[in-house]
Amino acid sequence: MSASFSKALGDYNDGNYHGALSILSPDRRQSFVLNELLLIAQCYAKTEKFADAASFYIKAAELGGPKQAMLRALAANMLQEADDSFASLNIARLAAKTGEFDTNAEETYRRCLHEFLCIDEAQMDDQRFLDRLKAGDERYLAAEFPHRHIGWCGDEGINARQMKVHDAMAFTPASRASRRAVPHRFSGRIKIGYLSADFSDQHATMRLFQSALLQHDPERFDVALFCNTDDDLIKIDKGSRDTYPNLQRIGHLSDQDAAAVIRNSGIDILVDLKGHTKGSRAGLLNLGAAPIQVAYLGFPGSGTGIDCDYILTDAVVTPETSRPFYHEKFCLLPDSYQSNDNIGRPLPPATPRGALGLPEDRIVFASFNAQRKITPATAEVWADILRRTDDSVLWVMCSNRFAQDNLVRWMENAGIASDRIIFADPVAYPDHIARLQAADIGLDTFPYNGHTTTSDKLWAGLPVPTFKGTHFASRVTESLLRALGVGELVADTPERYVELCVSLAKNPDELRAVKDKVAAQRTVAPLFDTTRFIRHLEKAFELMIARARNGQEPDHFAVPAIA
């Protein structure tokens, strides 16, 4: 190691990235050794010069060696950060398709395919990947993050075999037994801890859950929040965070130290609101932070590898046939598993179509789900609907220009003119609820339904037809529709879903009746009854504690509905 490289490395470790770059002189030299290229790339990444970082990762890959695919995957990630989606896809494809199998390359390439709506290529690659999963190839079972995996694969048996856990080792039967064996004293009030990286009123989870959270009965429950929320999300909070009870920040703590904090707080039930999503503290849960650990809301499926005793769910998203594919026991809530806020959720007047660039005289189908949910299966049913309703437009949220171009090109090949696709950008939440009311029919996504986005549409009075799914994420809209009392919007098959959407679009009186019913049910049906939901949730916790006090292992049970 040269003296100059040692000095640059020291500056990098001290956070002096510009100093390290000054020593390495990437803009004045032509040749570098591998370690220099990697250090330069990392310095550029740390200083958010992502395109420069990508170029040096590519140079490092071009030197050869066993890490070529991984280095190209890093370059693709940097190019995505630099908003060069086309280049990101190309280098990701090269990473995955040349050389030996590499987990990082596979994950990056497939993420690009889904994020950038490369629909035909994604369909072919999904089949390739599915074939390896069905064959039990452990390399592929560990290649995708579960949250990405359930977005395209609706097979619960395969979902249950996913092996990737973010920043943690999977729990074992022995580690679970050890956690449950730790002595614990259950006192008078039940001590509930909520663990999340989403404690901000600008996150979808808290938009659903915060009013329920604030309604716990203080005479029966002692609530604490263990916060792994990053500073950027905290900064955009509009003030609700200040009202959250007993909030303790643990983001700076190691898993072991954070688990000790929770254990020392005497928590009876720790509710994980993350699962396999961004900001998860799976390692903390697997070390054992509470005698009873419960999964809820953040991840729509089994938290494979994450040690939770129960999952808070319902009989629609997890019917009895799903039990073999979950290590968690089902706590079945009445109505729907999803909490909804009828207190702090805004309901402003509708935005006029003219202000949104929408035609006044055409049927508007709307989708505001994450763009990666526009899978090949979704695109195909949407195109079928649009082909059969000539006077309609598709109003869809997609802010990535490369993805927009890909979707338009695919739809044109499917016979849908480009002027029938209208793109929308993200807006402030009240404005979003206002604009939803300008649409006629909400389009769902498959196999990963709209979740918060579906409940937002229903809150705005917009009907969202769906069809029966095959795993948790694909059954959520059905759960919400049935809890709202509009089960007639649930079709049995994709073909009948298309028929349902087309029928509504072609029959104005039928559509008006459905929209009126959705709006009316908002104030009377269980879906948006926050107080009813929290009373059911509290009963669930009491039943869990009762089993534990009696020395019983966790088991499936259903919470009785309030009369």
Portion of residues within helices: 40-55%
Helix count, DSSP H or I runs of 4 or more residues: 25
Which of globular, elongated, flat, extended, rod-shaped describes the shape? Answer: globular
Cα(first) to Cα(last) distance is: 74 Å
Q: Number of DSSP strands?
A: 14
- Cross-sheet strand order for the largest sheet: 3-2-1-4-5-6-7-14
The major β-sheet equals:
8 strands, parallel
Fraction of residues in β-strands: 5-15%
Averaged pLDDT: 97
Give an overview of the whole structure.
With 563 residues, the protein is of the alpha/beta class. It contains 25 helices and 14 strands. Strands 3-2-1-4-5-6-7-14 form an 8-stranded parallel beta sheet, covered by helices on one side. The protein is globular and about 75 Å long. The model has no long low-confidence stretch (mean pLDDT 97).
Task: Give the helix/strand layout.
Layout: H1 3-13, H2 17-24, H3 34-46, H4 50-62, H5 68-81, H6 85-97, H7 103-115, H8 119-134, H9 138-141, H10 146-149, H11 156-159, H12 173-181, E1 190-196, H13 204-213, E2 221-227, H14 231-235, E3 247-249, H15 255-264, E4 269-272, H16 282-287, E5 292-295, E6 310-313, E7 329-332, H17 353-356, E8 363-367, H18 376-387, E9 392-397, H19 401-413, E10 421-424, H20 429-436, E11 441-442, H21 452-459, E12 466-467, H22 472-483, E13 490-491, H23 494-506, H24 508-521, H25 530-549, E14 557-558
Parallel strand pairs: 1-2, 1-4, 2-3, 4-5, 5-6, 6-7, 7-14, 8-9, 8-11, 9-10, 12-13
Helix pairs in contact: 1-2, 2-3, 3-4, 4-5, 5-6, 5-7, 6-7, 18-23
